[in-house]
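To whoever is covering the structure queue this week,

Two jobs came back overnight. Logging them here so there's a record in the thread.

Job A:
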Amino acid sequence: MSAPLGGDRLALDITADAQAELEVTTATATIALRGPTTAPATYDVRITLGENASLNWLPQPLISTRGSTVHQTYDVELAPTSRLLLREEQLLGRTAEPPGHLSTRLTVRREGQLLLDQHTAYGERAPAWDGPAVLGSHRATGQLLFVDPGLATGSQPLLIGADPAQGCAVLAPLAHGPALLATAVAPTPSRLRHLLDTALAHLTALQE
């Protein structure tokens, strides 16, 4: 969808009650545009999962275009027996285009306890976002979060992708799991999806 535009306030609430199984995706990428005002746009997603509920959150990428400003948040509340698979992908600019400003925050609580609180900022006004310690030359980034009460996470992170020029991902357990987080950077959206799909295949193998 061609939104959010500057000044938009978008919000999405998803609740899966006990025993429910949901999968949410989008037909196309979400394109953040400048719009008629310089005010930032907000895109807030609130997710609540009940006992033994399951949600696969698998939207298409969010594209940050020149001149746009978007603040995106995810606020997730999990029951101790619920299961979550959450993928988010960001593309910084279209072909040969610099990005706007994109900030995202992902906060996940399980049984009231903080599991993950992560904030990222890219593009205009974000210091050193394209430096070697952040994205470098890559313009696609994303992550895959998997929370499952039956997950055997292990203790060692896994590096996915041996060629830094083609991007890489790290799959690591979270301290207050059972949860694994894959974080990836890549030069293209297709390469980013490949890295995240590889991480997902590893997660699937852990459950077998």
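Job B:
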Amino acid sequence: MEGISGKVLTETLRDLERDGLVERHVYAEMPPRVEYELTALGRTLHAPLQALGTWAEQHIEEVLAAREAYDSRP
């Protein structure tokens, strides 16, 4: 993933695994391969995250205006 270090990505995936949101699958291949998939619990986040994304799309102009107003304060 662009914009995130390998260390941060690994830590985040481990935290998600610990929380029961993803499962890690290790394949005994050369080179080693690891895959992650959402668990049933992780899949329950789809609708709330989709709603958050929809909200963000609907309100992006207001958010950007608020940022601009904030940043222009003395």
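Note for Job B: Residues 46-71 form the longest helix (26 residues).

Please reply-all if you pick these up so we don't duplicate work.
Q.
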